[in-house]
Every structure is written in C-alpha cells, then in structure tokens.
Amino acid sequence: xxxxxxxxxxxxxTSYPTALEFKELGAHKYATWLTSLKNDEHLSLxxxxxxxxxxxxxxxxxMKVVNKYDVVAKYVDALVQEIALVAQHSGAEIVSHVHFGxxxxxxxxxxxxxxxxxxxxxxxxxxxxxxxxxxIDPRTLSEDKVKAYAxxxxxxxxxxxxxxxxxxxxxxxxxxxxxxxxxxxxWLTNQGxxxxxxxxxxxxxxxxxxxxxxxxxxAAKLKPDRISLxxxxxxxxxxxxxxxINSEDLPNGKSRLVMFKLASAILLAEGYDAIGLDHxxxxxxxxxxxxxxxSLRRNFQGYTTDNAGTLIGLGVSSISSFNEGFAKxxxxxKDYIANISKAELPVEHGLRTSxxxxxxxxxxxxxxxxxxxxxxxxxxxxxxxxxxxxxxxALAKLISEGILQKNQDTYQLTKKGSHxxxxxxxxxxxxxPQNIDIFDRCILESDG
Length: 448
Ligand SMILES: C[S@@+](CC[C@H](N)C(=O)[O-])C[C@H]1O[C@@H](n2cnc3c(N)ncnc32)[C@H](O)[C@@H]1O
Ligand code: SF4
Fold this sequence. Notes:
Strand content: 15-25%
Number of domains: 2
Bound molecules: S-adenosylmethionine, iron/sulfur cluster
CATH superfamily of the largest domain: tm_1862 like domain
Shape: globular
Oligomer: single chain
C-alpha cells in the first residue's frame, strides 16, 4: 500500500488535538476564556515576530521576508496594542515565561524589542525567576541587540545553527560561518545571557553521515545547555519555497534514521541527556532536571519546563492554549493589523477541548515526554469510562515487534521503539485515520 496517498506526515504532537483540527472560533470565546482566568494563575506568553530578512529554503515556520524595516515597525505598533488589549480582558496577570519566536525576533531593532518588553511589564507582572527566551538568527544579531535583550531581562536564547557544512548551507540558502556563531555566543555571554540552546536539523539536502558527524561534534564542543535535533520536514505542497530544494538531494528515511542515531550517540558521549523526540540537554539544565522530576512538558515550541496553566499567543498566527481549548490568531498580517486597530481580538480559529481530548492529551504527553504511559490510570484520573478496546490490536502488534513492552498496565517504549514515538502516539489520536496500518505509520515516522 502506498501510505503517502493517504497521509503524508505524522504529527509532532506539540499539542493535542493538533492545530490541523482547528475550526472557526469567534473572538468572543477567546475573550471569555481570558476573562475567566483566575487572578493567581500563572501565564506563559508567546510573542510571534513573523519577519525575516532572507528566505531559507528549508523553512517550515510562519514567516515573511521583508526588505523595508517600516513594515516591521508597523507590526510592532499593532503588537504592543494587542498586548494591552489582551491584558484588559485577562483575569490573570502573573507571567512566568515569555518566548519570542518567529520568523526572526532578531530582526527587531533594539528599541522595538525594548518597547515590546516594556509593554509586557506595564501590563503584566513578570515573576523574578521568569524565563525570557528569544529565538536567534545569528545573521541578524548584533551586539546592540544583545544589550537590549539583557536590559529587558532575557535569560535564554536558542540559536538557529541548522548545519555547519558549506554545501548543505548553500542548498538551503542559509550561509553562516562558525566564526559568526562564536561571535554571537561571545556577545550573549558577555551580557550574562548564558543559557544557550542550538537548533540543528538532520535530513537536509546534501547531508551525509560524515557531514552530520562533523556538524554535531562541532556543536557539542561549543557546549550549549541544550541542542534540538529536528528532523527536516519537507512539505513543498504546503511551503512552496521548499521546491527550491531538489528532492533527489535529500537523504532517504533509512539514512535519516542512521543520521539521527549517530548524532544521538555523539551527544550522549559528550555528556548530554536525551529528552524525548528530538532534544538533548546537559544534566544540569532545567530540561534534564524536569525530565527526571516528571515535570517535563510539551508546547508549540517542543519540550519545555514551562508549567504555566495557560499560554497566551500574541502576534499574527500565534496560538493560545487554555484548559477549555485553543484560540489561534489570524494568519493574515493585514487582517491582524486591521483587527487590532479596531481594538478587536484577532482570533479566528480554534477548538474547544472535551474531557476525552484532555485524557488523550495526557496519554500522548506521557509518551512524548517520559516514553511510558498507563492509559487506564489516566482515564480514571479524568473520570472517563474508556477501556481502550480500539487501541488494543495496534498496541499488541507493537509489543510483538519489540517497539513497546508492557508491565502490568504501563506501556514503555523500548530502545527500538524510541524511533517510533509519534507513530505510537497516533494510536491514541482520535483524529488520526486509524485505518492506516501501524507499521506504515512507523515508516512514515522515519520519512519525516
Ligand atoms: C523560527 S526558526 C528559528 C529562528 C530563526 N528564524 C532562525 O532560523 O535561526 C525555529 C527553528 O525551526 C527549525 N525549522 C525550521 N524549518 C524547519 C523544517 N522545515 N523542518 C524542521 N525544522 C525546521 C530550525 O531549526 C529553526 O532554527
Ligand atoms: S529558518 Fe528562521 S531565518 Fe530562515 S526563513 Fe525560517 S524563520 Fe526565517
């Protein structure tokens, strides 16, 4: 069977239900959820900066290339108004986590970054130990920007490295030298920003076993606290610019698995702990400690220590997550700016979560974060009468193939199974077409 004709990729389960299930949701629902937040509840803020100065052909993010800074400045005006508008509706005001993502937050001029953070501080109370993180495109960073981050309280950054190899960089239209990365790290640490993550990607065009070995070894020698090792998601039918990458230059599913195993082995040998699907962290890092403590979580950025009950997404296309459901801002920058200018919350889509969704979310989260799950115990905790009869045959097949093992009511991923984490999660995903054979789902996972 050609499974590609049915579904092309497995979800990465940064949320459950996934954003694919979002339907129309009125801004009034979002306003109700915001208003009903309890005063002492902690919030996490995600701030989306959708602009970049150059297009990377491998990019899967929601972004737009701009040549004129005026466009960015206009967006910042709308963003600060949105922050104030959301704060007016919100019943809660304590913020324990702020994340600037993109696109490229580094495109912001220092005064604009400061303006956004000043607006957050004027409208919310940021806890003294809050994590304030920024995604960094090294090519648009400067020492002045780093100084503005430090003054605004930034204490963690993730640097987009992707790959150190020149052929790979050419093939993805993203040239950046190792010297540039080292200079960025110097600027950051000089300003006391020393919690550093690297983003690496495997499965990119022209990557080979030896080039991956070289990139991962170089990255590990620079000793960032965390390394994300994302599998390249090639989706040219969604992101048209990916057609600039010749699919014949991409490593196949088998090579991708070898690359991931090799990269993991290098990182483990360099003293990193493996965190779930695609993250590695030094044992002293909070992510590693959270895994050991059982408090690790997953959000739209991947694995996190953020344990705020509610996430508020600010900026175009950003998603808010409440106990009651998800609310997504419009993906049109024009509509976003128009909504904000009328003091309207720019939410368009979302989903109300059911008790069944919350139960399945917890099972999938246990699997993604801790490689084990006890569906019956979770169902009982949520007061759901569910015996998981539909899931039994796929689970039994995976046990017989050595992907899962079962001890009383708890299922555990084996070492082999750790490469099929998302495929196992689909068994509990009520929105995933269950007529696709579980082994075909495992093949899809290797392919990206
Ligand atoms: C929004 S970008 C990071 C910030 C900044 N714009 C940069 O590129 O350095 C977040 C990360 O997503 C990852 N990423 C982007 N497109 C991807 C894709 N198609 N497949 C897998 N990972 C991807 C990259 O590692 C990138 O660093
Ligand atoms: S990878 Fe980062 S810098 Fe490159 S286009 Fe995407 S968001 Fe922009």
